[in-house]
Amino acid sequence: MPFRPVLHAEWIKIRTLRSLLGTLSAVLLATVAFSGLAATGSDRTDPLFSVFLGVSFGQIAAVAFGATAVSSDFRGGALRLALSAVPDRRRWFAAKAMAIALPVFAVGLVTGLVTLVLGRLLLGADGPTWAQGMRGALGCGVYLTLMALLAAGLAAVLRSGTATLGVLIPFLLTVSFVIGDMSGSVADVLPDRAGQVVLHTSWDGPLGPWSGLAVTAVWAAAALLAGARSLRRRDA
Amino acid sequence: MTSIDVHDLTKEYGGRRAVDHLTFTVRPGRVTGFLGPNGAGKSTTLRLVLGLDHPTSGTATVGGRPYSELHEPLRRVGALLDADAAHGSRTGRDHLLALAASNRIPVRRVDEVLQETGLAPAARRRVRTYSLGMRQRLGIAAALLGDPEVVLLDEPSNGLDPEGIVWIRRLLRRLAAQGRTVLVSSHLMNETASFADHLVVLGRGRLLADTPVRDFIHARVRPGTRIRTSDDERLGGLLARHGYAADRGADGTWTVRHARVEDLGRLLADAAVPVLELAQEEATLEQAYLDLTSAEAEFTAHHHQEA
After folding, report:
1. Do B150 and B265 sit in the same domain of this protein?
2. Domain count, chain B
3. How far apart are CA B127 and CA B137, in angstroms?
4. Rounded CA gap, B118 and B140, in Å?
5. Which of residues 50-79 of A touch B (CB under 8 A)?
6. How far is B247 from chain A (nearest CA, A)?
7. Domain that residue A86 falls in
8. How far is CA A1 from the centre of its chain?
9. Residue-wise pLDDT tens digits, B14-28
10. Chain B residues interacting with chain A (CB cutoff of 8 angstroms)
11. How far is CA A78 from the centre of its chain?
12. A39-72 residue pLDDT tens
């Protein structure tokens, strides 16, 4: 079966669920709102992160989007119907992942640019340079996409959006706010810590902005592969 | 012509055998009723045919190929498995649009099947607001979407009102008349006999019968005759001499199995047995079916497992 029609079908499924469109807009709104609030009260030691702090909140929406887009196809007899239309399960899941990744990346990139412009306005001379800012905006788009894919993979393994969010949200909040300042440990290679290096002006750990995102990509790929494997082996 | 071939198919779930060395063929141009009590393995078999569940052993093919190898399968095979396959927050039309897109089925077909299933007025409403009968019709619309040669419907009349049941009966007849292969599962014999040409009957995952409906009726549905007499002794002796199996009920009414009033009336008159009542008892198709599946029904009553 060709890939494009399957991708088209998965995109129709996403754009026809109002809750998913709402979650997607929440990525933009939450990130920009919290970044704006944070920028006004920032201590300005890390100008780039002062602008992009809202990503910690926007990522919750991105994760919810990825998990829900997958789990909506695991409700009732939905998966059986989807797989009777597309029996090649790997192809179906690949299309699903791409139908999640493309809109999150587009929204994430717009979110990054809006956040950057707003942050520069609020912080003026204390803000990041345009070069740093563009790195942050691009990183914002890539990071949110990878987190949505991580959630999508996990949702296919757990076959439940609620269970996925039950695992990921406490994890993200715990890692960011409790182990947050521990550096040079295993915390550095956790998916959110590694991926968020790109949002900081400077870094002192082993991972830079792009190698950090690569680590997050490995997490997302592992989750997607586990999801695809579970989908292929289990009865629908 | 596209047949469904199930060959030596077995499916076990954690040691419980839901489908047990099943072999049968569903041929085009007729409606095949797929019967069995709840838990007999009908739905499991349909899932195996559609490649949704992996068989423990054996094969199921459509037109000689496993379902999973079909190119754009909705154009070859349409199936209704669950009435709750559509997301409640999506409109009926959007649900079908996504399905159609995956198999490159034109949008025109979406509106055609909505019309055909009577859902056109509700097409832009969310599925959440549909009645069970409307969800069932949406599932049937999805099955017809690709104008498939093979149609598999699992309990399609579930939740339909009497008008809907007449509608589905006509639809099934029409699909078969067009030369399609139609397999319809049900646990109700009388309903199935009203539209099926052929029967495949399952019990505890095993094949109990694979026969034309007419033959099933001919071979298994035997009439009985009810007799009351003032001389039980002579009647009993007469029936026994002529090899009839008869029982006398507590109220004095005799029931003679597999006997017609035409034959017994003559016999009783010739023997001058006084007759108070002589009547044909219509043995039902349902009874014949229950006799066939009774052992399995007993089993499911103890286990309450749905397969």
Report:
1. no
2. 2
3. 11
4. 11
5. 72, 75-78
6. 50
7. 3-181
8. 29
9. 889 999 999 999 999
10. 47, 50-54, 67-74, 77, 79, 81-87, 89-91, 94-95, 97-99, 101-104, 142
11. 25
12. 777 666 888 998 999 999 999 999 999 999 999 9
